[in-house]
# Entry
Amino acid sequence: MAIDETPSSIFAPWPDRLRHSAIILLAAGLALTVLVALGELPLVAAAAAFALIVAAALVPWRLHDAAASRDDVRTEDPVEAAAVNAIVAGMPDPAVLLDRAGRVIHLNAAASQLAPALRKNELAQFALRSPEIITALREAIATTQPRRATYLDQVPIDRWMELVITPVPVPTRFGGADKCMLMTFHDLTPLRRVEEMRADFVANASHELRTPLAALSGFIDTLQGPARDDPKARERFLGIMQAQARRMARLIDDLLSLSRVELSAHVRPDTLVDLVPIIRQVVDGLEALASERQVEIDVDLPEPPVTIAGDREELLRLFENLIENALKYGASGGRVVVSLTTFAPAKAGGAGEGAPEYRVLVRDFGPGIAPEHLPRLTERFYRVDVGDSRAQGGTGLGLSLVKHILARHRGRLLIESVPKSGATFTACFPQLRPPTTT
Ligand code: ADP
# Structure
């Protein structure tokens, strides 16, 4: 059962402080009136006494009120509350304004999303339980100097955050300024990822170069030592050394092409090129490899021109990689189909699925690729079977290069495969917009 704690006197609706003062004044007034009526106290003395009692009852009330407002300011309502709130809310990164004790005054939506435990008027130390943050907060409060802390947030995914705590004077309602702490969070995850990728890339490239280099130096030792006077062994070893040297050259070539394309990734090619002769040139160049692998190349191209804004050399490289892969990895199918189609969506929109495209399909009928590998094929040095790729003279960089070239052309790569039935790699290019007639 609910208990009604409301006092039932005539003062009930009055605030506590006012109620107490009113009772004191009423009692004093009654006592003085009785004394004056009995002739025990002159009226003037009674009036003076009453004035003193009124002052005594009201002054502490005023003091209490002032202290309470200062407390309000510190905990939740700094003077320029609306302005401060708007600034914190408008910050693009997660931001929290704290008072001197570390209590949250304001926080923006990004901060609540990042740390849902952070709540207004509650201590940030309780919400952010990282010892590093607590130390930084304590130091910033003690020294009034900015402090930084980095920490790893692992739920729901790994995120590296940097937190900066900056002491800021916030103007108060009574003039002057209250020392507050502005805590901002910066997501370092993308930078860390790039750093990890760079380190992985250097490790992979060094490893790929070291393997043929070790083979070369081993054969040089053998030729200088045990095989010095063995012309047959010399011939064989020189052949292997030549293949290894070519492999290194190919790797360096691919690495340089990749870095060139990456450097110019933001500059879209502006030369008009016809896709049809470029594809034909690549197919002609790979006829020797096709007959060596006993694969027939079927070409199904429309009448030229099929014009896009493109870089001829890069496009040659792109089709060479796709068709060579089909000949190398899909040779067992005995057939490779290279075709060019026009893709016109029902509703033409911006880039991607909804925009008109030219699509160059390279289809083979080999073993295909298991679905778990598909999303990773365009990563640098990713290979389904490293041994197979090396045996085919692969570097693991071909599809990565293809992806970057397509990105520069504002296109995209689609990969489909049914294991045991082959694979289809589709290079999609946005069609040129027809000139607008005015
Ligand atoms: P690589 O130099 O090894 O050929 P790529 O980046 O061109 O490097 O290809 C990455 C991997 O993708 C290859 O090692 C191979 O395992 C797989 N792959 C590429 N094309 C095909 C294909 N047509 N059929 C089956 N697997 C393929």
Q: What stands out?
A: The radius of gyration is 40 Å. The chain has 13 helices and twelve strands. The domain at 191-263 is CATH 1.10.287.130 (Helix Hairpins). Residues 321, 325-326, 329-330, 364, 366, 369, 377, 383-385, 389, 394-400, 423 surround adenosine-5'-diphosphate (CB under 6 Å).
